[in-house]
Amino acid sequence: MPEIIEKTLSYAESVNAALSRALEERPETLLFGEDVAIPGGVFGVTKGLRRKFGERVFDTPISESAILGGAVGSAMFGRRPIVEIMWADFALVAFDQIVNQAANVRYVSRGALAAPLTVRTQQGNAPGACAQHSQSLEALFAHIPGIRVCMPTTNQDAYDLLLSAIWSDDPTIVIENRTLYHGAKQPVRIGGPVQAVGGVGLRRSGSDLTVVTWGAMQHRVLAAAERAAAEGIDAEVIDARWIRPLDLDSILASVQRTGRLLVVHEAHTTGGVGAEVVSRVVESGVQLTSPPVRIGALETRIPAAVQLAARVLPGDEDILGAIRRVAHDVPAGRVEAMPAGAR
Amino acid sequence: MPEIIEKTLSYAESVNAALSRALEERPETLLFGEDVAIPGGVFGVTKGLRRKFGERVFDTPISESAILGGAVGSAMFGRRPIVEIMWADFALVAFDQIVNQAANVRYVSRGALAAPLTVRTQQGNAPGACAQHSQSLEALFAHIPGIRVCMPTTNQDAYDLLLSAIWSDDPTIVIENRTLYHGAKQPVRIGGPVQAVGGVGLRRSGSDLTVVTWGAMQHRVLAAAERAAAEGIDAEVIDARWIRPLDLDSILASVQRTGRLLVVHEAHTTGGVGAEVVSRVVESGVQLTSPPVRIGALETRIPAAVQLAARVLPGDEDILGAIRRVAHDVPAGRVEAMPAGAR
Amino acid sequence: MSQDTLLASLEVMHRIRETEETISRLRLSEDIVGSVHLCNGQEAIYTGAVRALDLGRDAVFPTYRGHGWAIACGVPPEAVLAELLGRASGISGGRGGSAYFTAPGYGMYGENSIVGAGAPIACGAALAGRFDGSGRVALASFGEGAMNQGAVHEAMNFAAAMTLPVIFLVENNTYSELTPTRDVVRNDQFFRRASAYGMAGVRFDGNDPDAVRDAVADAVERCRNGAGPVLLEAMTQRIVGHYIGDVQHYRPAGELDAAIAAEPIARAERMARAAGVGDTELAALRQRVVDEVDRAAQAALSAPLADPATVEEHVYA
Amino acid sequence: MSQDTLLASLEVMHRIRETEETISRLRLSEDIVGSVHLCNGQEAIYTGAVRALDLGRDAVFPTYRGHGWAIACGVPPEAVLAELLGRASGISGGRGGSAYFTAPGYGMYGENSIVGAGAPIACGAALAGRFDGSGRVALASFGEGAMNQGAVHEAMNFAAAMTLPVIFLVENNTYSELTPTRDVVRNDQFFRRASAYGMAGVRFDGNDPDAVRDAVADAVERCRNGAGPVLLEAMTQRIVGHYIGDVQHYRPAGELDAAIAAEPIARAERMARAAGVGDTELAALRQRVVDEVDRAAQAALSAPLADPATVEEHVYA
Ligand SMILES: Cc1ncc(C[n+]2csc(CCOP(=O)(O)OP(=O)(O)O)c2C)c(N)n1
Ligand SMILES: Cc1ncc(C[n+]2csc(CCOP(=O)(O)OP(=O)(O)O)c2C)c(N)n1
Ligand SMILES: [Mg+2]
Ligand SMILES: [Mg+2]
């Protein structure tokens, strides 16, 4: 276990540092995917790793079933593959290998085999991206028992959660976000013990309502929370960075204090993980002072033009409006604005 | 539009009757998939259609991407394809064609093109079926704007909903259930106007709690509701047969009367459509007398042995227990019994 | 080929056949439930292939039609039967059932119920071998119908591009469930597809365990020498339905009779007789296996059912 | 080939190139945002292919690298530019952007941003043609890297098995994004894969619009005669990065220079000169197109943005 040092890194560099450490410390790791090795990744995230680690890092054909199947098979035989699916949208051409294959290995063999693989992918909208390169699909992964799912947002989490995923003996999906890769550098603690899977990040303490969020969306949530604070609404913001397992206890503890719940995610509202959060909370019997609210993408496809996509995805105003609504129990807002047909 | 006549049909025969009518009345329909034509389907559902309708009904290679892509493409060009994906689990080898292709056709072309295709599939556990042939995956489909999803359970619905799907100009997934195909014959009204997409089925009126369910599971729900009635609990049972669009108004109207909500489905609880139902209801602000409860499959893979699968899927006792719990606000039950790690 | 080898193959094939026949009976009596895919008629493939493998390091990836592979790999018939009967002593403790059990202790790394999905997983096993020094060869076996599945294509290209030691073994029984596979392809000589990937492709008589052994042994040698993957096409016929209960109305008149005349056990017995083995000896050999499988069935039937209290184990580490 | 044809091709290729150059400038100025894939160097493929098609009934299914296809099909540069600029007048009203617009009115049935996904959809278009009496041929175009995607394999087998009138046109620019495609296959002569499906496969110079036209015309004829699908492999090079901003450090020294020397516009101009066309005439031709595209850009830039109030339209019927 390397000593803890602090470095100033971008999100992409944090991911790279985690990969580098994993490849260094655990000789059973492999890293492969489209363009990840010699080119260093289409986002430059895996730069230098091929040079450093040789043929344990390699480029593949454009064959997601082969990539994911290769991960499942090599993981069954003692390797610890880390594979990249360039966009979460592309996982759908090979979703079988995750849901029907990786998720079952341990179960059917009663632990005689395992599939300790990590799928690194990234998702969400970025300016100009089309409907096939913009979806937030964590709900599809998170519905599957046997799979772990996390969504790191801070540079520190980009490092920490990826290592937790790689160290985990379960198939784990790490969903990054390309709009974060080359953002601001931040001090990141590198080295030290690898954390166990699970847990939330408290991004802002507050007493008036609990906002549960994850992924890049939380930057907007935090901005909206500051604006709300100026209006006298003190929002607690929780980053539910592990989507599965979901740390319900931490969320409940907060909601118990605030009595109000807002969930904000970039994914479409209907069938999104927000529904799971709301359901778990209300099932717990905790008393809510006002009805919970979810904010997600409108029930439409995601258009490429920036001003169109901006309307579809939750914006700062939408989030602020929802905070006000939950805090003051205003019976109006974006959720009701959904056309009935789209529900 | 053929005149309404009543026939005594099995579920499979009802599906067959709907297909036959569609192929008869709408010359633009096509029917294809693995073993559907000359063999008449692995469950015998499409028997006789090839003979009757010739080359509009044909067998395909074991190529789900080609089947679904062939449906998308032919639908774009004026055909009205009805394709079979033999098990919903198999859709995952070609999920791209549904989520990234079919769902986008109308949107990106602003209505210049459409994808009026119907995917018939079936899902769920049956005695002895393995983890790769037992999943209930409606949540994956229902998360996707642009897609319609229904789950017919009665023989009448097997006929009606399939026709609504075929007549619909949107890509629609009809999820049947193989354990129902060759069950009891029932009188089925054949012919008459094709219903618009959407709406619930009221399976039992009651005043003490609202049980929302769908799929084959509702037979167990109805049995449990009868047992509950003997104990003095009067459950209303709603078949939310259209999962997307979900008929929230009908559900809300019932919950408004009963003040109590239980959702029962065969799919895994976490991330299942039950979460969407619970969230929509509590977001509406309707007052609940006791916390809502969801019952679904335990958070494990589905084992093949009958006694094992029976433990994983919601059983009569589980459902009855949940009815009691919701009706009497008993703070205990299956949901809490989930191991924390599996959440 | 020596007489010993012939009789050894015959014994394995009997063991497979008797297990399948027993499963069939137990399915009809509803001791076993659900969909069951038997491999009667295809036994020579498993028997011959396993003879060419070193199961101490090699790995086999079959399909839902995998009982025969398991038996050939050495899984005791009792463990297979118990699995289908949902017993705790089943090879996967009842988790897998007929179509999805796994026996890693025997080099048999899982049936797979998704057509074609085992092929990329086998590539992963071969890939692991590149780093663990085992010299492992991975054998992915599937039907000819699976050749039209995208995952199989991706696996073949991946293995070829990376020169992975993978044997893609096509069990060409000429049917994709109830559909003649020649109706859904233009060219049903599947071994010819190998050249698309720059692989060698070989077709041979899949009812002859020695032909299978030879082809697989050649492929193993190529693989171990670092020459990369091979596509093998074993021609065979199933002499039973796709699943139990399949009445095979889709088979043209005479086809099944011809298949039964050519099936590997009858064929091997003919060869044994030609080589001088007596009817009594052949009958005794078979009877020994019948008795063995019978005892296995009794044991499996009297074993305790897998315990429902354990269903939540092994989902996560 | 007549001089008229040569100049007509040159004009189309200029129109594509100028549109791409304009897009490149607008991307660098951030009027256009996001990932943009240009087709510079591959223009002869679209130009030649469209000459062999009857867009009144035939249908083209390109990829994210589809601007050139759109222009060749007759989509006005203004409609393409406006699309990338998110204008209401964009060919898809800003819904598709650079990588996913569609122009059904021009026989161009959509870019596709999922590698290989257009191939099975093209099969569907061809299938529809079997019933609507149109005699439609569907042309699916994609890169050589897409040949390793399962969906493409399934589409080829499906089309071959059903004798569908589909042309699978591989634009072999030798790179899969930043990876040389020869590094991820064993045999990079992709046209040879055709035989696996029982199809004809042809490789030709993709920088020569006439060679492309001839190959596609032959394929169209086969298709219309009911002989089924064809696999075409057009050899080319992109002379720009995979996306705007790609510095192409992965290209060996000299490769890009050679590609630029062989690129279709320079090539066509050389041929025109050899056939006696003067430099002035060539310059005038180009200038006419430059002006045309320039006007288109101005018009697109001054058109109103697509209205956010409409984002929920056309999700369902
Ligand atoms: C992806 C997928 N599609 C369809 C099926 C249903 N299915 C099970 S077996 C089978 C036929 C397979 O034919 P073949 O590959 O020739 O193998 P055989 O059964 O003849 O051994 C089909 C279509 C499946 N299990 N998985
Ligand atoms: C299924 C899928 N996997 C990966 C990608 C990412 N991707 C976009 S373009 C591309 C390279 C395609 O190479 P090729 O098919 O040769 O076409 P070219 O870009 O050279 O025209 C890749 C890998 C994708 N869009 N879809
Ligand atoms: Mg077969
Ligand atoms: Mg290319």
Automatic annotation (TrEMBL), chains A, B:
Record carries keyword Oxidoreductase: yes
SMART domains given in the database record: Transket_pyr
Cofactor(s) needed by this chain: thiamine diphosphate
CDD domains membership: TPP_PYR_E1-PDHc-beta_like
Domain (Transketolase-like pyrimidine-binding): residue spans on this chain: 9-183
Keyword terms of this UniProt record: Oxidoreductase, Thiamine pyrophosphate
InterPro entries: THDP-binding, Transketo_C/PFOR_II, Transketolase-like_Pyr-bd, Transketolase_C
Domain of life assignment: Bacteria
Stated name of the protein: Alpha-ketoacid dehydrogenase subunit beta
Species lineage: Bacteria, Bacillati, Actinomycetota, Actinomycetes, Micrococcales
From TrEMBL, chains C, D:
Residue ranges of every copy of the Dehydrogenase E1 component domain listed in the record: 13-307
Essential cofactor(s): thiamine diphosphate
CDD domains per the UniProt record, alphabetical: TPP_E1_PDC_ADC_BCADC
InterPro entries for this protein: DH_E1 (IPR001017), PDH_E1_Alpha_Subunit (IPR050642), THDP-binding (IPR029061)
Keywords on record: Oxidoreductase, Thiamine pyrophosphate
UniProt key word Membrane: no
Database matches in PANTHER family: PYRUVATE DEHYDROGENASE E1 COMPONENT SUBUNIT ALPHA, PYRUVATE DEHYDROGENASE E1 COMPONENT, ALPHA SUBUNIT BACTERIAL AND ORGANELLAR
Name of this protein: Thiamine pyrophosphate-dependent dehydrogenase E1 component subunit alpha
Native organism: Agromyces soli
Lineage: Bacteria, Bacillati, Actinomycetota, Actinomycetes, Micrococcales
